[in-house]
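Recap from last week: sequence in, structure out.
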Amino acid sequence: MRAWLQTGFGGPEVRRLSEVAAPSPAADEVIVRVLAFALNRLDVLQRHEPVVPGMAVPHVAGMDFVGEIVAAGADALRPLVGSVALIDPVVSCGHCEYCLAETPTYCAIFQTIGSTRDGGMAEFVAVPARNCSVVEVAADDRDTLARLAAVPVAGATAWRGLLSAGKLQAGETVVIPGAGSGLGAAGIQIALAQGAEVFTLVSGEAKRLLAETSGAQHVIDRSTGDWVEKVRELTGGKGVDLVWDHVGGRFVGQALRATRTGGRVVLSGTTDGLDTVLHLPDLYQPGRSIIGHGSYSRADMASAVAAFAGGSFEVVIDSVWPFEQLPEAEAKLESNDFYGKIVVLGPSFSLVPETTP
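Predicted structure tokens:
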């Protein structure tokens, strides 16, 4: 089969379209024919270096994908064959205390499809049957497949950060940074569906104009001034109920100052840095809270998928690319010149992209 095989660490040259052996399913696994996959920042980061413990080359990346189940192992459910499924990339033992509590990323044998085991940048992938969520979509419906591929990691992470950990309620105010990122775009839609008043942050006029179409009530351009002061101005000096911080680094301290007395910050990521400096009175004197995002659960994933399928929220797609143009799609991701998720179609589709990149 064809796959984008990573054989080293570095630039785009370390990932090449290659002929590799097709996978065989273990007893509890199924074989998925990949129909579409969405790019994540991790795909590029681990191309440069093994940022996730246990990741090694040769390797096939791709965490977010949807595909058709074409074969099943001896213990997997045979009726799954022929179905289209969305794949949860988190693989675990299935029976320890963490797995039984539906928090598989804490499992001692936790692995990630697309990071510590081969992922969706290929014609076929072997995945545990329990990781498959069957969806009602035709295997040739490019538009729906592209949007489905963009749901798993961004959707489940946003659901966890805003609702499960953040306890965002209808009528509350929330700041969501990075409106143009996959996480930010998903978060905006989930928060709006919850009935929250959304403040979102962008950098630059082009992304401000795009973000204004997202439905967010307030779009703030961080490049034009102090976003914290702007949030406080727009809330009558009070600050917001919640800041969902999937940025990290120095943003954490800014997020605290943007919340009201008794407000809360949910920390979900560290794309801007692993360390921060806090002015502690900003935390304890107003009774604010910093909440660790924790592992998204299978319930978070299922809720995000169900909400998307039910039309409660929509994913934002920047562009859709053919399988053979993965390097160009990755270059777009690395350029930061995108808004929403970048999706690549599986190799069974035509070389002509559905959406002009």
